[in-house]
Amino acid sequence: MDGISGLEVTITLGNSDFARKLGIRLMILRGDRPRRKVAEEMGVHINTLERYENGKSRSLKFHTLERIAEYYKVSVEDLFRV
C-alpha cells in the first residue's frame, strides 16, 4: 500500500451542471464570510475557491473537496446538493 500514499485524485466534470451546483452550495455555506478569510482558514488558495464558487472549474481535486467539506462540517457528497 505504500505505493499509493500521496496519490492525488482529480474529478473531471463533463457536465457543467455539477460545477454550477457545487458553486451554489459553496456560496450558501460561506454565507457573508469573506472568501479570502474562508480560503485561508480551510487551507485552499483563494483562486481555487473562487473558481469552485463561480462554477468555472471543470476538474476538481478530491483532497481540496475534502478540505472544503471538513471546514463546513459536511460530506463531500453534500457539497453537490443544492
Molecular structure report:
- The protein has 4 helices and 2 strands, in the order βαααβα.
- By secondary structure, the chain is mainly alpha-helical.
- Strands 1-2 form a two-stranded antiparallel ribbon.
- It starts with 9 loop residues before the first strand and ends in a 10-residue tail after the last helix.
- The mean pLDDT is 85.
Name a few traits of the molecule:
82 residues; mainly alpha; 434 Repressor (Amino-terminal Domain); two-stranded antiparallel ribbon; 4 helices; 2 strands
What's the SSE pattern? EHHHEH
Total separate domains:
1
Query: Could you name the CATH homologous superfamily?
Result: lambda repressor-like DNA-binding domains
Compute the separation of the termini in Å: 36 Å
- Rounded mean pLDDT is 85
Tell me the structural class: mainly alpha
Q: Quickly count the helices.
A: 4
Q: Please give the largest β-sheet.
A: 2 strands, antiparallel
Oligomer: single chain
Number of strands: 2
**Rg from Cα:** 13 Å
Would you identify the regions where 5 or more consecutive residues have pLDDT less than 50?
A: none
CATH architectural arrangement: Orthogonal Bundle
- So what's the overall shape? globular
CATH topology: 434 Repressor (Amino-terminal Domain)
- How much of the residues is beta strand, in percent? 5-15%
Approximately how much helix is present in the residues?
40-55%
What is the CATH C level class, in words? Mainly Alpha
Spatial sequence of strands, sheet with the most strands = 1-2
